[in-house]
Amino acid sequence: MSRLTADLVMTAGRIATMDATRHTAEALAARDGKIVALGSDDDVTPLIGPETVVIDLAGRTAIPGIVDSHNHPDAYAARLASWELLSPDRIQSREALLARLSDVAESKGPDDWVAGYRLNENKSGGYPTIEELDAAAKGRPLFILRTDGHIGLANSRAFAELGIDETTPDPDFGSFDKHPKTGKLTGVVRETAAHIFLDRVHDGDTPDSIATGLEKVFAEWTSYGITSVYNSLTPSKGIRAYQLMKDRDHLAMRVGIIVSGREDGLVESMTAAGIRSGFGDDWVRIIGVEWCPDCSTSGRTAAYYDPYIGKKIEGEPDPNTGVLLYELEDLKRRALAAHKAGLQVMIEGVGDRGIDFALDAIEHCLQQHPMEDHRMRVEHCCYATPPLVERIRKLGVIDSSATGFMYDLGDAYIANRGQAAMAAMWPHRAMIDAGVPAPGHSDAMVCQANPFLALWSMVNRKSDTGGDLDASQAITPTEALHAYTWLGAYSGREEHLKGSLEIGKLADVAVLDRDYFSIPTEEIREVQVDMTVIGGRIIHQR
Question: For every residue of 330-341, which 3-state class applies, written as one string?
């Protein structure tokens, strides 16, 4: 092929560049994975050679590839092989849940674990009792992870396998719930207690098995126009899995690794090795490090100043203001060491108390080691009251907003925190007006990966069922897409490479089946992706 011809050309389209001017182009050309021309059809026609792939957009809208800046594809991949998906689209009642678990148990050996994930008790008939779980499991150990990843359900055999009974002390920052009258285990396990069971069920995972699952995950996610993911809380097995995929040329997604602070010694090994944010290439790159001190609003464990309202879970504390999973001085020490070592720090804060806690650690880092363009992030950052918005602005922190929660979990937020709280829940209008960068993310598979569901909620301020999330914080379709493109890339220091379509940037493009910018806003969640291009190569075609 001539050196002057393109590998791929798109013509006759409405290409939304999402650059600083928000201009629209008719055509685009890419070579060696990057954009080399952007303008009219006449501008790219001279670049078409005999081997150029030419795509006639026929008036369709194309946008920059979606950058989902916080999700868990490695955990999803690990569960695909042997865990049962229990999301509300499959399970709508407790009877259906127990029947499905019973069927799964029948297919297992007598000592095999029955494991399920993405249970949403608010939409699936509530939590089953430990006796119901025992009956469904037919003598096998059983563990279910709630959709938020912070709460689990275990049966009697599972507790016995781990040597846990009513006399076992709760682990630090977790609990084995007990009936308030009888003192017997209810089956509900919270936070670090749930991770004891998770570690046991995941013990057999290998980098190779995770890599195999990731190929399936990314085949699904590219169908939503996602071209880059930032894998939150990535453990060492996940890091190895991504290197395996890259070595085998099986990586059909750009991956930013956010190293897990949950795995003992992992962040410390990164700092000892001198690895800093930005290490890697355009396919696999270290973005930063993350700790998770705050929890789940839908699961009633996230840290708030005011107590939860609504229906209590049997065994939860009263009053319940949630929990925090680190001592502040310990978190400050960990975060400062990483910050000094050149690793971008990310700390989860969900409730207002949790966000303040994360900001206390970040402020300590900046006091001890000032940095102008630090881009430290508060992950999820859900209940950001006006004083918190101002504190975030003053500290120059990124609001890494869990916009996926709005669609899938919005009803639970209303039920657990009250309608009035929605005016400060995911307050994107306030963040934009204050000049705070607020990228959106799915947190998949806590929630669905499809970004157009979250975009719909950001614009319409509704949950999936139409629950009122307070229209005062609504933003425009363009502002919402900006949060899932340029701001996503900015949150990982990659805006020079992706997030907008500009000459010299990566040729990562999503072609839509309708014009996202002009359709009625109620239609946004119906948008489908006709084609996804990564590095000038067609990865998905509907």
Answer: HHHHHHHHHHHC
Alpha-carbon gap, residue 363 to 370, rounded angstroms: 9
Rounded CA gap, 157 and 420, in Å? 43
End-to-end CA distance of the chain: 28
Mapping DSSP onto H, E and C, the string for 222-283 reads HHHCEEEEEEEEECHHHHHHHHHHHHCCCCCCEEEEEEECCCCCHHHHHHHCCCCCCCECCC
AA identity, residue 24: T
What pLDDT, in 10s, does the model give residues 51-95? Answer: 999 999 999 999 999 999 999 999 999 999 889 999 999 999 999
φ/ψ (deg, to 5) at 53: -80, 120
CB atoms within 10 A of CB 93: 12
Estimate the crossing angle of helix 94-106 against helix 130-137, to 10 degrees.
30
pLDDT in tens, 465-502: 999 999 999 999 999 999 999 999 999 999 999 999 99
Q: Which residues make beta-bridge pairs with 176?
A: 189
Taking a C-beta distance cutoff of 8 angstroms, is the pair 406, 463 a contact? yes
- Tell me if 438 is assigned to some domain: no
CA dihedral 255, 257, 263, 265 (to 10 degrees): 140
Other CB atoms within 10 Å distance of the CB of residue 181: 7
- Is 187 among the domain residues? yes
Cα separation, 409 vs 407, in Å, equals 6
Tell whether 256 is covered by a domain.
no
Q: Would 214 be classed as within a structural domain?
A: no
Confirm if 421 and 433 have CB atoms less than 8 A apart: no
pLDDT band at 3 (very low <50, low <70, confident <90, very high): low
Distance, CA of 55 to CA of 9 (rounded, Å): 6
Strand partners for 377 = 346, 398
Q: If residue 402 lies in a helix (H) or strand (E), which one and from where to where?
A: none
Residues 474 and 461: their CA atoms lie apart, in Å, by 6
Contact between 293 and 265 under an 8 Å Cβ cutoff? The reply is no
Which stretches of 57-157 are assigned E, i.e. beta strand? 61-64, 66-71, 84-85, 114-119, 142-146, 151-154
Q: What is the CATH number of the domain that holds 196?
A: 3.10.310.70
Q: Helix, strand, coil proportions of the chain in percent (round to 5)? A: 35, 25, 40
Residue numbers of the domain that contains 162: 73-203
Minimal CA–CA distance to 427: which of 402, 409, 445? Answer: 402
Total domains present in the chain: 1
Q: With H, G, I as helix, E, B as strand and everything else as coil, classify residue 348.
A: strand
CA 132 to chain centre: 32
- In tens, the pLDDT along 236-293 reads 999 999 999 999 999 999 999 999 999 999 999 999 999 999 999 999 999 999 999 9
Residue among 64, 58, 66, 132 nearest 97 (CA): 132
In contact, 525 and 507? CB cutoff 8 Å: no
What is the residue whose two structure tokens read 């992030």? 377
| DSSP state, residue 521 | G
